[in-house]
Amino acid sequence: MKVVNGTCGVTTMSGPGSCAEEMDGAWRLGGRGQRAKAVSWASAFRFCRAACLDCANCAYVSVSLVDRECSWFAACDLERLLQRGEARFRTIHVRELKHSPDRKPLRQGGVFA
Question: Which of 27, 19, 41 is nearest to 97 (CA)?
């Protein structure tokens, strides 16, 4: 697993169904909707990777121990990551998506816009 310093972008916390409808989002470290616990980089990446694999539109994750956040993205340019000061995000590519990340899924069914 290649880890790159920085984040793919700025996200907001994900709600129910966002993995199938949105192209990015975020989860709190320690569990979706749970209060975050102190974690290591290794445990944070394990949690975020597992959550990403359960998220239809997730291909990349950016992790911050400072913010206790796991941001997810359908697409990301690992050569042009944002540096967010004290947040100290680190990013990994989790998998290739079966659909093109620049084609946003519609809210109904598996049809793409």
Answer: 19
- What global pTM score does this model have? 0.79
Which tokens is 97 given? 């998506």
pLDDT tens for the chain, 113 residues long, are: 799 999 999 998 988 778 889 999 999 986 554 445 557 999 999 999 999 999 999 999 999 998 899 999 999 999 999 997 766 899 999 999 986 545 444 333 443 33
Buried b (16+ CB within 10 A) or exposed e, 88-100: ebbbbbbeeeeee
- First-to-last alpha carbon distance for the chain, in angstroms, is 32
